[in-house]
Every structure is written in C-alpha cells, then in structure tokens.
Amino acid sequence: FYVDTPTDAAQEQMMAYYTGLPQYDGYDFGEMPECRDLTGRDISNMCEKAWRQELSLKEATDNGCVPILRRNPEMVAKLRDEAHNSYLSAQIPGVYRKHDSDAVRKEELKGRRITWGDEEDEGGEA
Hints:
- By secondary structure, this protein is an all-alpha fold.
- It is built from six helices and no strands.
C-alpha cells in the first residue's frame, strides 16, 4: 500500500486529535495554523513543540516546524514515482496513480475497508 499525504479535511481531524491528547489536557494551543501539506507526524511534532516551548501552534509552525513536503519535496516525489501504478492506494480503491493524488485531496475520502473471512463489506458482498 502507498499512503499519500492526507486531505485537508483529514489534516484538520488529525489536528483536533493531537491537540486533544491527554498529555496536553488544559493547554491552550491558541491560533491554529493552516492545515496544508502536513503529515500526521508533522502535526504531532508541531503539537509537541508548541507544548514544550509554551507556544501557540501558529508560533511553533512559524518557528521551525517545516512540513516534510517543504523540507524534502524530492523525496516525496521519488516515493510517489515509485508507487505510481505499482502499489495499491491506501486512500482510494485501486492502484495508486500520481495524477489521481491531487483530485483525491480535493474530495472527501471514504477510505479502504479490508474484510476477513465471512465479514461483509459495505456493498453487502463477502
């Protein structure tokens, strides 16, 4: 499977998840940065940095939390090239295709569902 960067909506959900973790209970993360081109690890790192340095998430982002897509776009492009027509997409049914990536990011994803044995999928088939 190839897992491309999350959609904007998924990034916002991850931001809500990480800022709501018990270790940050009561911490005011302040102004939220724009969620674009972030991975789950980027969001986790931003929250950790903001909490440890008593910054808002916006300040943590402005002070050195650089998303992987900006830090190393060549590596991401290489991974996408390798995955193109070679790996299953973890986000949509079928094989991963680079040109589908931008279109997928613009729509809400339903994701994949893997069934085992006699379980039924959403279409009612086993």
